Amino acid sequence: MSEEMFFVDIDSLQEHGISAQDLTKLKAAGYATVLGVIQATRKSLTKIKGLSEIKVDKIKASRCRRPQLPGCSNQSRFSTLQDAANKVSPQVFITGAECAVRREKVISITTGSKSFDAMLGGGIQTQSMTEVYGEFRTGKTQLCHTLCVTAQLPVDMGGGEGKVAYIDTEGTFRPDRIKAIAERFNVDPVAALENIVFARAHNSEHQMELITQLAAKFAEEQGVYRLLIVDSILALFRVDFSGRGELADRQQKLNQMLSRLTRISEEFNVAIFVANQVQSDPGANAMFAGADKKPIGGHVMAHASATRVYLRKGRGEERVAKLADSPDQPEGEASKSRSLIVPGLRATTFRSQY
User: Fold this and answer.
1) Residue 277: CA atoms inside 13 Å, Cβ hemisphere, count?
2) Which residue blocks in 58-172 are alpha helix, DSSP H?
3) Per-residue pLDDT, 288
4) Residue 327: helix, strand or coil by DSSP?
5) Residue 312, exposed/middle/buried by CB under 10 A (0-12, 13-18, 19+)?
6) Please, which residues bridge with residue 230 across strands?
7) Which residues contact 310 (CB under 8 A, 6 or more apart)?
């Protein structure tokens, strides 16, 4: 199956009556593929500057392409737009066998440890979102840095043969770490850094803008990127929204961002990897290690992440990774030596417990 199933350019809608001017506005808003238009709600499309409801109401019957619906002067431009999108890329029911064929396009990106990869079912998968959460100094950012390099490896070496996009919300991205990890995997350090596009997000709104920009970039450079990292996903939300009075607004905006990330993973066949912080859970059973900590973001974050991994500190320099949630893998636990994240040392093997 070719890459074309993920990249039906939005310009193809021009053949179905959508003007070049409207397509330019859609691209500026981050809708660069036909699938992106189909996935968008009318409400979100209405918010695009230049495509207001007032302007839509002026669209005449000549622009409507639904002959089965008479009197289409009341039809909006968005109906016409989405009709055209569905003609280019029909969204219909398919068989389980056809879905299995589509899933063959999924790429698993190695974490650098065979046992950790086995626990995840092969590694960090494209077309889905993987969340790793834990306290400070448990290896979340180091894992993000490692994936920046492994995603560039050939597929037969467990990589994705692609570039990486990195959104840093905490100011912890370090090029020197990338160089050290690249040397461990026998990758040219300079080339590894050249294959990473990096941006520092300063607030939650800026974070969303960067994600929108990446959607356009992924469409422009089709099939080039394989991994999008956000470290960390909720740090800026904790700053911009405070108290219970703003909780509902925060969760709604978070939900919109996570939905956008999920759509990007499916549109462009990329892996979404997000790091998340934790908070204390006084009501939890403290008899079990890490039971008094839970990831922030609540149910919104939990439902958006296809795979969730909990990182915690073990004995001494040991770090323990627990697979907390996965759609196709059983819960498991693996431990690693800190030698995995110290520059210059080779990887050790996880001790997996299922």
Assistant:
1) 13
2) 77-88, 96-103, 114-120, 140-150
3) 54
4) coil
5) buried
6) 167, 274
7) 132, 133, 134, 290, 295, 321, 322, 324
pLDDT per 10-residue tile (average), the chain, 354 residues: 59 76 79 76 76 44 36 48 62 83 91 88 94 92 95 94 96 96 95 97 95 89 93 94 91 94 92 94 60 86 94 82 89 63 36 39
- 297: which 2 tokens? 């973001």
Burial of 161 (0-12, 13-18, 19+ CB in 10 A): middle
| Cβ–Cβ under 8 Å, residues 324 and 119 | no
- Size of the chain, expressed as the number of residues it contains: 354
pLDDT recorded at residue 348? 34
Strands 319-325 and 163-168, sheet pairing: unpaired
102 close to 1: Cβ distance less than 8 angstroms: yes
- pLDDT value of residue 341: 42
Angle subtended at Cα 145 by Cα 142 and Cα 146, rounded to the nearest 5 degrees: 90
- Is the Cβ–Cβ distance between 298 and 279 less than 8 Å? no
CA distance between the termini of the chain = 34
Which phi and psi angles does 152 have, rounded to 5°?
A: -90, -10
Q: Could you please report the per-residue DSSP string of 256-301?
A: HHHHHHHHHHHHHT-EEEEEE-EEE-TTS-TTSTTTTEEETTHHHH
Q: What's the confidence (pLDDT) of residue 220?
A: 84
Between CA 218 and CA 17 the distance in angstroms is 25
Number of Cβ atoms within 10 Å of the Cβ of 195 = 20
> Using CA atoms, how far apart are residues 208 and 254, in angstroms rounded to an integer?
9
pTM: 0.81
Q: Order of strands across the sheet with 319-325?
A: 196-200, 163-168, 225-231, 271-276, 129-134, 307-313, 319-325, 332-336, 351-353
